[in-house]
Amino acid sequence: ASYERQMSWALKESAEMAAN
C-alpha cells in the first residue's frame, strides 16, 4: 500500500534529519 511507502520514507527522512 502507498501508506506503507510513505511511512518508510518518513522514517528515513526523520532518521537523516536526526543524523544532521
Chain-wise SSE layout:
Blueprint lengths: L1 H18 L1
Question: What do these coordinates show?
Answer:
This protein is an all-alpha fold and 20 residues long. 90% of the residues lie in helices and 0% in strands. The protein contains one helix and no strands. It has one helix at residues 2-19. The longest helix is centred in the middle third of the chain and has 18 residues, at 2-19. The protein is rod-shaped, with a radius of gyration of 9 Å. The N and C termini lie far apart (29 Å). The mean pLDDT is 91.
Radius of gyration: 9 Å
Mean pLDDT: 91
The helix tally amounts to: 1
Q: What percentage of amino acids are in beta strands?
A: under 5%
Instruction: Assign an overall shape.
Output: rod-shaped
Euclidean distance between termini CA atoms: 29 Å
Low-confidence stretches: none
- List the helices and strands in order: H
Biggest beta sheet attributes:
none
Structural class comes to: mainly alpha
Helix content: over 70%
Please provide the count of β strands: 0
Summarize the structure.
It contains one helix and no strands.
Overview features:
20 residues, rod-shaped, 1 helix, mainly alpha
